[in-house]
Amino acid sequence: MRIELTVNGERREADDVWEGESLLYALRERLGLPGSKNACEQGECGSCTVYLDGTPVCACLVAAGQAQGREVTTVEGLGSAESLDPVQQAFLERGAVQCGFCTPGLIVSTHDLLQRNPNPSDPEIREALAGNLCRCTGYEKIMDAVRTAAEATR
Ligand code: FES
Ligand code: FES
């Protein structure tokens, strides 16, 4: 089947999408957007987090067909290489990126948190990011990055 959707503000379409295909697969393999990562494909790790109509979802758990006519924003759509989003900048500055597999999902989840709550407490940050697993950093640098991003966006 063909799907048509808006991705990062642009009208996009993909052909030959099969019924069980995930939005994550379509984004990465059909639309050339490899920012969202596939680490578990089971909704456990959060590395594939994208916005779907403004709500963060695990793109591995959404069928590509469910995104028909809807609006998707990926980590690529939050900023550009020339003009990073403050959350992207904070992750870079605070050394919160090691292997980077978890990073796109954490950035989208942090972006969402700060839109809802510009001044989160540490427990609120931990709760908001509980669905995003990181094997590398021990989370301290990620906490630093979120606090820095919160200061930058307030
Ligand atoms: S790849 Fe989607 S939650 Fe892990
Ligand atoms: S930086 Fe490697 S999983 Fe988080």
CATH architecture of the largest domain: Roll
Question: Can you list the ligands bound to this structure?
Answer: FE2/S2 (inorganic) cluster
- Report the radius of gyration as a whole number of Å: 15 Å
Note the main sheet: 5 strands, mixed
Q: Decide which structural class fits the backbone.
A: alpha+beta
Multimerization status: single chain
Q: What is the β-strand count?
A: 5
Helix content: 25-40%
| Average predicted local confidence, pLDDT | 97
Dominant shape: globular
First-to-last CA distance: 44 Å
Strand content: 5-15%
| Widest β-sheet, arrangement of strands | 2-1-5-3-4
Along the chain, the helix and strand elements come as EEHEEEHHHH
Low-pLDDT runs: none
By CATH, the topology of the largest domain is Ubiquitin-like (UB roll)
